Amino acid sequence: MSSMSVEKSQLELIMELEPVVEKELNRHLATAEEWFPHQYVPWSRGRDYDGPMGGEGWTPEDSNVSPEARVALLVNLLTEDNLPGYHYAIARVFGGKGAWGTWVERWTAEEARHSIVIRDFLTVTRAIDPVELERQRMIHMQGGYEATHGEDLLRGVAYVSFQELATRVSHRNTGKASGDPLCEQMMQRVAKDENLHMIFYRNLLGAAFEVDPSQTMRAITDVVKAFEMPGNTIDGFLRKSVTIANAGIYDLRLHHDDVLMPVLRKWGVFEMGGLDADGERAREELGEFLEQIDSAAAKFETRRAERRARQAARAE
Fold first, then answer.
1. Is residue 255 marked as binding?
2. Which candidate, 169, 201, 161, 165, places its Cα nearest to that of 188?
3. Does the annotation list 197 as a binding residue?
4. For the chain, which ranges sit under pLDDT 70?
């Protein structure tokens, strides 16, 4: 391919990729399992809270999960809560017509179940403080959501390819860290949806490589280098994310090994031919950045192991 290759316009990409969207939509509809949030909530464990019902206010002793798991559950639910912002962002990119529009609505309908089931579960089991949750929900949702990639189609699809897998990993590990078998079962059910969504976007971007490999490579590199979780605007997110990372629920190692690399390998980005000069530069930048993440992850793991050793020694 010539180093002077011309990038395809957004409209050209949307038109050329629509048959792939239709194919992946049909595959998704044939694969997705119907499930009901109310079946994953242990309603018999519920009791009235303080307020108009005259029940008992929440205390930390009510919760069966660790403080670290409570932080992760709060962040996960607040992230799911912001669905209206995500819907608006993705609809602006994909549009509301044809297979693109059908996917947006289906994706939104499936995602809505996640906040429903997690909130019901946490409220009934008193796993986290419902007052703190509601106050933080109000703050977070009033802040809105603005995608870092704007309305760029390829960057948008690249972002959600990684983000859906990152959310799946976070949900599954949060369930495991909760120490509550029912909570783990519920979070696994949510994570299965996220995995199917990841496959849709991953396959769609894989097709984009066939349409314009160099432009797609540049989009992926830009997204990986600027990647942030969609809940990054949650009040106190940095502090919360450190707690989550220290607990091993989601950290740089998981981000590199279990999110970025599996998707990049599936696309075959480091074996791909047919790139122009900018595509090759983008691939080089990507490789260098992945090495930086790997190095930073190793340093974090070492520091975390040292902290845990000191804590264990103090506890003896």
1. no
2. 169
3. yes
4. 1-6
